[in-house]
Amino acid sequence: MTTPQELYERLKKVNEPKGYYFDNDHEMVMDLLKGLLLNRERYGYMCCPCRLASGDREWDRDITCPCVYREPDVAEYGSCYCQLYVSKEWNEGRIPHLTVPERRPAEKYRS
């Protein structure tokens, strides 16, 4: 079983060269990584811990981490929706820390 720290190290190596950094709030990042691992246990895939997953991998493909919204969110706001991934400027405090609006279409939320 993967630990949050192991996941942190693996994802950091893959994402930092692409310009995506973990938020400086290490405790929050670890909580989000625990959520990703819990969702992998529940559903078989690591879907965003900040959104409601359906359990249907294909339906949730847009919120499988890193979600399809990460790139536009970080480009526009400096952070993804759940603040797991941020830009260097975000971590350095050079841009305002605004709340990222939900980009996922309402119809993707099943009842």
Structure write-up:
- This protein is mainly α and 111 residues long.
- The chain has helices spanning 4-15, 26-43, 70-77, 88-91, and strands spanning 21-22, 85-86.
- The mean pLDDT is 95.
Q: Which class of secondary structure composition applies to the elements? A: mainly alpha
- The oligomeric status of these chains comes to single chain
Mean pLDDT: 95
Task: Please state how the strands of the largest beta sheet are arranged side by side.
Answer: 1-2
Low-pLDDT runs: none
Number of helices: 4
Number of strands: 2
- Radius of gyration, in Å, reads 14 Å
Principal-axes shape call: globular
Instruction: Please trace the helix and strand order, writing H or E for each element.
Output: HEHHEH
- Range of strand content: under 5%
The profile of the biggest β sheet is: 2 strands, antiparallel
Calculate the terminal CA-CA distance, rounded to whole Å.
31 Å
Helix percent band: 25-40%
Short summary:
The protein has helices at 4-15, 26-43, 70-77, 88-91; strands spanning 21-22, 85-86.
List the helices and strands and how they pair.
Elements: H1 4-15, E1 21-22, H2 26-43, H3 70-77, E2 85-86, H4 88-91
Antiparallel strand pairs: 1-2
Helix pairs in contact: 1-2
